[in-house]
């Protein structure tokens, strides 16, 4: 899937590519996400019948063609005019869920009208009533799950965006936060316009009481994204949360935060099956999905690669990325001696020590 990133780099303005690719601070957490996968090896089993090997799984109680969901990523229309509609259609064709972001450039109602399995990602806003209104709006639109992002009291210092004085391209807006559209497009004297906008919109007072309020306000499965500490995962399950996504936000929040893959085993052990556990950050191929399953995840979220596919080829580009991921996962499962995704969770793993400087 690195080919998709190279193809996207050839057509995207450098500041847009930086907005998607970049992380916070010195980008240690960003690099560590990929390095975490590179350190984990699985022990294949042999003499297993894999002639009927399949990638099917279940996420949040619903069947999927592979244990993958498209992660929430803001402003798809930055990279292609069809935006989230193209990505959602490609996800539908691939048989995987697509997550509409609060900062989507297309309204959720238009995305769900395209069909397929759609989840909605929610940021807790300073205007609490608007947060609950967005949750109800997503439910009314036909979304199948709510995903509350819990690791963004404000946006991390993403130095590429600061240096680029990043602002949204003309014609791109936050479809669910209309009042902020002009401010996101305004290029300030210094820094990132997107960071300034989210600082005004997002609440730094998100607490467990907000989670419980949201849990009581919706019938949909509730997912918390951005959990790394086992204690927080246990508290989430006790609060009635259906799943957690073990994540350091793609290396875009606290620089130096533990990679999701490294945090995953302890979270899985701590919750003991009381809620589903997914992981994101650094997934770049089918072997990575196999690795996450072997470490106890029910599935993975993938964010940047579909955006690269969208930039390079619109809906067809996203389809190619997801088709490649499914092909690689099927190949990895079979070569590991697994007739299906359930078998991957019984594989042994070995984690090599981190290389020195």
Automatic annotation (TrEMBL):
It holds the Pfam family FMN_dh. Its cofactor is FMN. SUPFAM superfamilies: FMN-linked oxidoreductases. The active site is at residue 249. This is Alpha-hydroxy-acid oxidizing protein. The keyword Ubl conjugation does not apply. Glyoxylate binds at residues 123, 249, 252. PANTHER family: 2-HYDROXYACID OXIDASE 1, S -2-HYDROXY-ACID OXIDASE-RELATED. FMN binds at residues 72-74, 121, 149, 158, 225, 247, 280-284, 303-304. InterPro entries: Aldolase_TIM (IPR013785), Alpha-hydoxy_acid_DH_FMN (IPR012133), FMN-dep_DH (IPR000262), FMN_HAD (IPR037396), FMN_hydac_DH_AS (IPR008259). Keywords: Flavoprotein, FMN, Oxidoreductase. Residues 1-354 form the FMN hydroxy acid dehydrogenase domain. One of its GO terms (molecular function) is oxidoreductase activity, acting on CH-OH group of donors. Belongs to the FMN-dependent alpha-hydroxy acid dehydrogenase family. The keyword Transferase does not apply.
């Amino acid at each position: 899937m690195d080919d998709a990133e190279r193809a996207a780099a050839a057509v995207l303005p450098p500041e847009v590519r930086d907005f998607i690719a970049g992380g916070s601070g010195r980008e240690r957490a960003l690099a560590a996400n990929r390095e975490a996968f590179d350190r984990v090896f699985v022990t294949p089993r042999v003499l297993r019948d894999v002639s009927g090997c399949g990638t099917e799984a279940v996420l949040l109680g619903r069947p999927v063609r592979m244990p993958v969901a498209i992660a929430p990523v803001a402003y798809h229309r930055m990279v292609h005019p069809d935006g989230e509609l193209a990505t959602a259609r490609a996800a539908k064709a691939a048989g995987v869920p697509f997550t509409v972001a609060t900062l989507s450039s297309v309204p959720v109602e238009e995305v769900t009208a395209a069909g397929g399995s759609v989840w909605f990602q929610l940021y807790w806003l300073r205007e609490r009533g608007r947060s609950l209104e967005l949750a109800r709006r997503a439910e009314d639109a036909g979304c199948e799950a709510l995903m509350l992002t819990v690791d963004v009291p404000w946006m991390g210092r993403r130095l590429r965006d600061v240096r680029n004085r990043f602002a949204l391209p003309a014609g791109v807006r936050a479809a669910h936060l209309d009042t902020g559209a002009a401010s996101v497009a305004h290029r300030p004297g210094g820094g990132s316009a997107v960071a300034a906008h989210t600082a005004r919109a997002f609440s730094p007072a998100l607490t467990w009481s907000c989670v419980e309020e949201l849990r009581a306000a919706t019938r949909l499965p509730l997912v918390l994204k951005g959990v790394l500490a086992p204690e927080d995962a246990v508290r989430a399950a006790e609060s009635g949360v259906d799943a957690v996504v073990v994540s350091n936000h793609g290396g875009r929040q606290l620089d130096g935060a533990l990679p999701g893959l490294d945090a995953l085993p302890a979270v899985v052990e701590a919750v003991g099956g009381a809620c589903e556990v997914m992981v994101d950050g650094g997934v770049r191929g089918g072997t990575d999905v196999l690795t996450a399953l072997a470490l106890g995840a029910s599935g993975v979220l993938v964010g940047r690669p579909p955006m690269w596919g969208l930039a390079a080829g619109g809906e067809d580009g996203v389809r190619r990325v997801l088709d490649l991921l499914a092909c690689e996962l099927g190949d990895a499962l079979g070569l590991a001696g697994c007739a299906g995704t359930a078998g991957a969770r019984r594989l042994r793993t070995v984690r090599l020590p981190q290389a020195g400087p």
